[in-house]
Write a structure and sequence with these properties.
Pfam families: 4HBT_3, 4HBT_3C. This is Thioesterase family protein. InterPro entries: ACOT8-like_C, Acyl-CoA_hotdog, HotDog_dom_sf, Sec_Metab_Biosynth-Assoc, TesB_ACOT8-like_N. This protein has one domain: Porin (Beta Barrel). Helix content is 15%, strand content 37%. It is α+β, with helices and mostly antiparallel strands. The protein has a 12-stranded antiparallel β-sheet, covered by helices on one side. Helix 2 runs antiparallel to helix 4. Strand 10 and strand 11 form a beta hairpin.
Length: 275
């Protein structure tokens, strides 16, 4: 019961950060304040996190295993309305579809898969202690809030790989990330962190470029059995940028090197800037 109490208190951090509250008929309302905006509007990772949070609350008997989200409109300032609907798949699996709207406009649709978690098999472990320094030994990196306001909410500590906008020849980044507001290390939180680093092609650029996410997917790879807030090692790499589209793969690991989740994003490249 003690662990459950800690988890409930930490999860409250994410809901309170975005003012997420049930408003009747299973629906939730939330607002992504301007301090949580990205390059040109509300942070997409916050929308992912809210959709997962609402889905998890809708089927508390199940555990979130995957999320697929598509942006079908451009989010703006103001209240979001999240409306879940549940489909049963067999005895223990639930698919929660979450529609995210602003006014009369649908801006995102998410499909969250949840189900019973059985006995754990061998975990995918990388010895992070040997591979990279822990977050305590790394300098903080501040994303200029006048460019990306949501950067002010992050404790971001690059580990290795090139930094954004340095004209590098490699398109990947790796950093320890946590939020300054304490939040539980659950599926919603991982959805938030998976989108916190800039597009992985950014190290090869020397000036910012609009590369908005169109499709986001994430799969939980190991049970999230410790709800305590903790830094997560986020490693994102660009696997393709061509034809006006860019695809990034991201892994999220804990201090022990355990793989918590893997994510993929398809982004639209709006314009292009030479390196």
């Amino acid at each position: 019961m003690k662990q459950l109490s800690r988890q409930q208190g930490a999860v409250k951090g994410l809901a309170e950060e975005f003012g997420a509250l049930p408003v009747g008929s299973g629906r939730w309302a939330a607002t992504i304040g301007e301090s949580w905006w990205g390059w040109s509007g509300p942070f997409g990772g916050a929308i992912v996190a809210l959709a997962v949070h609402v889905a998890a609350d809708t089927v508390p008997e199940a555990t979130v295993r995957a999320v697929d989200l598509r942006f079908v409109g451009k989010p703006a300032g103001g209240e979001l309305l999240l409306t879940p609907s549940v489909r049963e798949v067999g005895r223990h699996t639930r698919i929660v579809d979450v529609s995210v709207t602003q006014g009369a406009t649908e801006i995102a649709v998410a499909s969250v898969t949840a189900g019973r978690v059985g006995d754990a098999g061998p975990a995918d472990i990388v010895d992070v202690a040997d591979a990279v320094p822990g977050p305590e030994g790394m300098a903080q990196f501040s994303i200029p809030p006048e460019i990306v306001p949501m950067g002010g909410h992050l404790d971001l500590r690059p580990v290795d790989g090139p930094l954004p906008l340095t004209g590098a020849h490699e398109s990947w980044m790796r950093a320890w990330i946590s939020t300054r507001t304490s939040m539980a290390l659950d599926a919603a939180y991982l959805g938030l962190l998976a989108d916190c680093l800039p597009p992985a092609v950014f190290p090869t650029l020397t000036a910012p470029l609009a590369i908005p996410t169109v499709a986001f997917s994430m799969h939980i790879t190991d049970p999230l059995d410790d709800p305590e807030p903790a830094p997560v090692l986020v490693h994102t790499r660009n696997i393709s940028t061509s034809g006006g589209w860019s695809v990034d793969d991201t892994t999220l690991r804990d201090r022990s090197g355990r793989l918590l989740a893997s994510a993929r994003q398809s982004r639209r490249v709006v314009g292009w800037s030479a390196r």
